[in-house]
Amino acid sequence: MPTNFSGTWDIISNDNFESYMVALGIDFATRKIANMLKPQKVIEQDGDSFTIKTFTSFKNYTVSFKIGEEFDEVTRAMDNRKVKTVVNWENDKLVCVQKGEKKNRGWTHWIEGDKLHLVFCI
């Protein structure tokens, strides 16, 4: 059985987040604000169905998906890209691929101990 991601998670660091935002073409001022934020993620998991809510003092964002099913997404939390998104399991990791205007972006989430990890793919 895959990992249960359900819970409330506080972001404590954003390694390489600046490079990710530059690759997306996000303006300087927005990048500086985003780098100062410490988001909180609330993940609700029911089997292979997920809702991930990201809360900050700047913007909030919610995405819902089912593992392996492609869906239309607008990345409102970042840069308002319209993408086709699919999230799959790779062992105990959630791996997201977004296809659209900017080539193959996405992210990977996994849990180690009591920490939720997130890596953005550029």
Automatic annotation (TrEMBL):
Residues 7-24 form the Cytosolic fatty-acid binding proteins domain. GO terms for molecular function: lipid binding. The keyword Nucleus does not apply. Pfam families: Lipocalin. InterPro entries: Calycin, Fatty_acid-bd, ILBP, Lipocln_cytosolic_FA-bd_dom. It comes from the Eukaryota. Keywords: Transport. The keyword Transport applies. PANTHER family: FATTY ACID BINDING PROTEIN. Belongs to the calycin superfamily. Fatty-acid binding protein (FABP) family. This is Cytosolic fatty-acid binding proteins domain-containing protein.
